[in-house]
Write a structure and sequence with these properties.
Length: about 190
């Protein structure tokens, strides 16, 4: 049985003004609502926009230099974390009006730790950095970030995020007995890191 919700595509976040806050969205209006009240109202895949933003910044600002700017690298890690947060939050099945859990808990509920323990261990490393160091920064945390966040570490975080995205897309379609549309993986092809 094929899932026809959102034209067989992963859930989308309805966003109006937030789309202007993310550069390089590339008009990712992939799906429309299928009810009479809101036919053809575009949806923005904000989680993909964060990934595209991180990838664009990485290749244009980081990869080309031996001495990348720390603030650029921090913004990329924030975009990676936001990408995964939106990806899992938008596709999280809430019970009643319960709050959306933290990213770490959502990823566990999707079963990454059982299905791909290697990816889960990698994710834990990214999550600790994203959540513990980048939330509520102070001088001490910024010093710690500067000592940890290297070009190689950022490259690793990019690869971790890419792997989790690909795993999620496949897991989502497996769960909904649908095929992965060819265009859903195009932003996650293997790169010359």
């Amino acid at each position: 049985m094929e899932d026809n919700t959102n034209n067989g595509k992963i859930g989308f976040c309805k966003v109006a003004s937030a789309t202007t806050a993310v550069t390089n969205i590339k008009n990712q209006n992939w799906a429309v609502l299928n009810n009479e009240d809101q036919i053809d109202q575009p949806f923005t895949n904000i989680q993909l926009a964060f990934w595209i933003d991180a990838k664009t910044k990485y290749f244009s600002l980081i990869k080309k230099t031996d001495y990348p700017d720390l603030s650029d690298m921090i913004l990329i890690v924030i975009a990676l974390g936001n990408s995964l947060t939106f990806l899992f939050a938008v596709n999280f099945e809430k019970i009643n009006d319960s709050k959306t859990p933290e990213l770490f808990d959502m990823i566990k509920k999707w079963g990454l730790h059982n299905a791909r323990p290697d990816y889960f261990r990698d994710f834990e490393e990214l999550f600790v950095f994203y959540r513990n160091l980048l939330k509520h920064p102070d001088r001490k945390k910024l010093d710690e970030i500067a000592s940890i966040l290297t070009k190689e570490k950022l490259k690793r975080f990019m690869q971790i995020t890419r792997n989790i995205w690909i795993w999620f897309i496949k897991k989502y379609h497996e769960k909904h007995n649908s095929k992965v549309p060819g265009d859903q993986l195009k932003e996650f092809k293997e790169f010359d890191w």
